[in-house]
Amino acid sequence: MAERGYVIFPEFLPKDEAQALFNYAQNLGEPDWNIAGIGREQQHTVNTRVRSDQIRWLHPEHAIEQSYLSTMDTLRQYLNRRFFMGLFDYECHLARYQPGAFYKKHLDAFKGRSNRVLTTVFYLNPEWTPNDGGELIIYGESDTVLETVLPQQNTLVMFLSDTFVHEVQVAHKERFSITGWFRHNTSLGPRIDPPR
Length: 196
Ligand SMILES: O=C(O)CCC(=O)C(=O)O
Ligand SMILES: [Fe+2]
Description:
Elements: E1 6-9, H1 15-27, E2 34-35, E3 54-57, H2 63-83, E4 89-97, E5 103-106, E6 116-123, E7 136-139, E8 145-149, E9 156-160, E10 166-168, E11 175-183
Antiparallel strand pairs: 1-9, 2-3, 3-4, 4-11, 5-10, 6-9, 6-11, 7-8, 7-10
Cofactor: L-ascorbate
Keywords: Dioxygenase, Iron, Metal-binding, Oxidoreductase, Vitamin C
Protein name: Proline hydroxylase
């Protein structure tokens, strides 16, 4: 993480916890999902040419959501102790990519204009093969491909939000993940990044 700015953990949680999150995501009803937007506040727009996934912000009222949030808070404290990152909080949402959905090349944060510091993506599907598409591609300098990540259950990817351009290739089957951001406490107004 400190040297490259990103890291991939193939087995992040105990297996049963990852599977429980998958079951939970899969059993959510249609009204639980929202069309994902881009940008923040007034600039928040729904642009299905850039991304076509659906999201659900995690809230501590649901035990299983709380459990993931609390794991990530432990990770936040560890990162602060180990790397002095000054991470202030964490927000995350479940994401559902239905067959045909994608998220074109983008950065999660623009230098100096966002308080998102570190992106985390945690994958939930138990069986995912290269034929299923939906890979996360992480780009380096001049569009070189640094990593192609299969969205396989229990893999966690973490990268600096304002540094790595990335994209989600078209998924050929339903793809579930939890995307989140560790943030700095800079004041950018009362509401920050996509309104919940
Ligand atoms: O699901 C992924 O692999 C990445 C999602 C993403 O880039 C995002 O939600 O900003
Ligand atoms: Fe992203």
